[in-house]
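Example (one chain per record):
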Amino acid sequence: MFQTFEPASDIGFAAAHVPPLRAALADQGLDGLLIPHDDAYLNEYLPDNAERLMWVSGFSGSAGMAIVLKDKAAVFSDGRYTLQLREQVDQEYFELHNTADVDPAEWLATNTAEGAVIGYDPFLYSKAGLAPYVRMAAKSGFTLKALETNPIDVAWEDQPEEPCAPILPHPDSFSGEGSESKRHRLAEDLKSAKVGAALLTAPHSLAWLFNIRGGDVHASPLPLGRAILRVDGSAELFIHPDKVTDGLPAHLGNEVTIRAETEVMSALADLGKAGVKVAVDPAITPLAFTQALEAAGAGIEEMADPCSLPRALKNDAELDGARAAHIRDGAVITRFLHWLAEEAPKSELTEIAAAQKLESLRIATGVLKDISFDTISGSANHGALPHYRVSTRSDQKIKPGTLFLIDSGGQYEDGTTDITRTMAIGAPTEEMRRCYTLVLQGHIALATAKFPKGTSGHALDAFARRPLWEAGLDYDHGTGHGVGSYLGVHEGPQKISKHPIAQALEPGMICSNEPGFYKAGEFGIRIENLIIVTQPQPVPGGEREMMSFETITLAPLERELIVADMLTEDERKWVDDYHAEVWAKVGPELDGEVKDWLKARTAAL
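Predicted structure:
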C-alpha cells in the first residue's frame, strides 16, 4: 500500500521535544524560533526528515507553523484543522490559534521583547514568506537571524535520513515536448527579461523542464534538486549523485550538466563573479539562495518561476493522457462504489477498510505509480472535516443513516487524478438530500460557466457558491486548484477561490471543481471533478469568444441524494448528459454485475 494509517504523531510530542529544542536555542543564543511546515524545497508534501513542525508540536496537518519562545509557544493553522490541533497538540506547551483570527507575525511581536533574537532557517522561508516577520521586526524591535544550523536538527536525535530515490526519464510520449525544446523556449523568455540565467529551486519545475520524475516525496513523483537554466538554453542540474540512473545523462543530452547538489552555492558564487543577472522567484525560492546571490554580487531580477505557467498549460499529449487516466480511474471508482453499495449496509465496514479497498483497486490496474494524496475517507461527523485523515486512532464504522465522503486520487504516467464522491449509506434525510443538491447545483454552475479571456478563478468562484449562499450556507475552502500532469495534485499558478487571484485561466489548464457543505458533527458533502479550460469559441449572437470547461472525471453521482425537483431543466440535462458520458466511456471498461450496476446508476433522471 502507498499509504499507512498509523498515527504519525501523538500529543506527547510536545512534552518530549520542546525542552530539548529550547536547550538548542539557548546554545545558539536565540530567544525564539520560527517553524514553518516546509522543507528546503518549499514542497506541499514533506519527506519524513523535514517534518519539523510535527516533531516539535505533534501537529501533522498540511498547513501551519509554530513559534517557540523561551517561555511560551504557539501553533497556527487554518479553520480546516481546528479539531485536529486540539487532538494532537498539548496545550500545556502550545497556544492554538486560527490564522484567520491571530496573525503569527503579530503574535510574535506581542510576545517578544525589544532586542530579542528570533532565529529562522533560510532554507525554509522564501523572501515573500518571511516578509511579514521582517516588517514586524522593524516595527517592534526584535531581530531576525538567519541560521546556519536549524536547532531542531540538533535536538532531533532520531531524525530520518534525507530521501534519495532514483531519477527516471519521463517519456516524450507522455510529456508531449522534449526537454531541449522546453529549455530553449524558456531561454527566449529569459532573453526578453534581460537576464542571463534563472535559478530553479522547485522540484516541480525540475521534473517538468527536464522531463524527469523521482520518488523523494510521498504522493508526488518529485526529484529533489536544484537547477540553473541559462539564456542559451543550456542548464546545470544539481542532484545527489546516487540519484543518477544509467539512462539519465543520455536523456538529458549534452546541453545539461549534472552536478552534485552540494555544489549549488559555489555555482551561484560563480554567477555573481561573472556579473550575471539571475531570475529568482521571491515566492518560492529559499532565502538561503537569494542571500548567497546577493553576497556574491549577482544582479537579481525578481520574476515568477519561468516553468510555472508553461507547466500549467498542458499540451495535446498531456491532455489526452489526462483523459485516458480519468477513464481508467473512473472504472476504478465505479468498481469501488459498487463494492461500497454492497458492503456498507452490513455495518461492519470501516473508514480505513474503504480507503484500503479503493487503493487496492487502483493498484490492480497495473499502472498505478502512487496515490496523489492520502485518501480522505470520512463517515458521518468525520465527513464534516474537509481534510480529515483517518488513522487507527480515529477509524470508525460506516453506519446506515449517514453520509460517507471519500476524496482520493492516483498518479499514473499519463495523468494525475483527484475525485470526491459523497454517498448515502442507507436512507438519507431530507436535509442531506437538499444540501447535496445545492452542492450539485453549484458544481454544475461552474462546470457550465462561459468566460472571456483574462478571467481569473476568483471571478468564477461565486458560480459554485451561489446556490449555497441563497440557502444561507457556504464552505471554507477553495473551489478549485490546479492539477499537474503526473506531478503535484495541487499545482499553480491557477486556482478558483474567493480570494483574489492574479493568474487568469488559460486554455489547457486543468483545475478541480469541488464545492461542498459541512455540517459540524454530522455530515460532509463534496462533489469533485477535474475540468480542462477550453479554447475560446464563438457564442451564437455574441460579440466575444468565450472559454469554458471540459469535465474529464468520469464516475456516477449519488442518485439517492439528488432532489430532481430542485433542479432546473438545464441542470437535469447536465446530469443526464454527464451520466451518459460516464456510461459511454467507462462502461466498456467494466463487465458483469459492476457494468449492470453502472448502467442503472447512469440512467436518465
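Caption: The mean pLDDT is 97.
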